[in-house]
Amino acid sequence: MKIKKFIASDMSLLLNRVKEELGEDAVIISTSVLSDGKTELIAALDNFDDDFGDDGRQRENTLSYNDAFLRECLGYHQLTVQAQAVILSTCRRIAAERKYAADGDILTQAFEQLFHYGDFFDLSCPVKMFIGAHGSGKTTSLVKVATMARLRSIPVSIISTDTVRAGANSQLQAFASVLEVEYSLIRNHDVLFDKILAAQSDNRMVLIDTAGVNPFQSADIERLNAICNVVSCDKIITLDAGWNAEDAVEAVGVFAKLGAEWILPTKMDISRRIGAVLSTAATCRLQLGYAGIGSNIAKGLAKVNSSALTRLITE
After folding, report:
1. What is the pLDDT of residue 313?
2. 63-110, pLDDT tens digit by residue?
């Protein structure tokens, strides 16, 4: 494998240099911003044609995989440079090791190796806190999870800590009434722990709604962190699937520092490009469980798995 480092002030210039010096088959290993503001990019190229055996004779090049189709598919979905490089590099390795011929099979196996999946309804941790940026669909997602839990005969308690949007709390309380689940609005964080403890004593799934925040504003994150520190729980990031991938990765990184371990993509049904979802899953290494796919509360969540993501990208 040939590995080379490139440094320039412009990413497009870097990518052109990689293409000129290493060719179309080069993959991006990493990118980073240097202290002088320039960008460092490390790229690699597998030298299969220069592979020699122990006897000194050149081995036959048996790799026939061409990742042009997957490059085009991932390019359409506008992933971050790092995420696309990681995924394509994994695809090339799988193709070389397992001799897969079908692009879909290769991409599915790559997702299996790179992404982490789980189930929100695993009650080993019954307390779930929904966090995310303004307008990312936290409250709607919480109601969808509550509805699915009730359909599975799981008792639920809903707690709102959102003291900013009065209308949202009225709507959430109305949904709780329809679902026949307990609802509480907590204005004092000191009361939150006791309320959660009381709900857990009845073996309930406790779903906590929080106010939307700007992940790039330290004051917002400090307020959210105060709530996150009250209790140990599964923290689920609601992520607008159509968000810009670079911004999404940065935002999810902020939420991950608060202890978030899950991503729940929202608005998947109206997002033409899902680079934000793929990029955060590939580089932030959080778990995927379900995704929001519509306004129907009872049927508005779909299970996320590698095969489903592959179909979205390649079909």
Report:
1. 94
2. 457 889 999 999 999 999 989 999 999 998 898 887 766 899 999 999
CATH no. for 117-314: 3.40.50.300
3-state SS class at 313:
helix
**Average pLDDT for 38-48:** 74
Give exposure, 189-198, as e/b (b: 16+ Cβ within 10 Å). Answer: eeebeebbee
Q: Work out the pLDDT band at 47, boundaries 50, 70, 90.
A: low
Domain ranges of the chain: 2-115, 117-314
Burial 83-108 (b: 16+ CB within 10 A, else e): bbbbbbbbbbbbbeeeebeebbebbb
Q: Give the residue among 183, 191, 198 at the shortest CA–CA distance from 142.
A: 183
Show Cβ contacts of residue 187 under 8 Å, excluding neighbours closer than 6 positions.
163
Dihedral sign (CA 68, 284, 281, 138): negative
Q: CA 108 from chain center: how many Å?
A: 16
Residue 138 near residue 163 (C-beta atoms within 8 A): no
Predicted confidence at residue 21, as pLDDT, reads 84
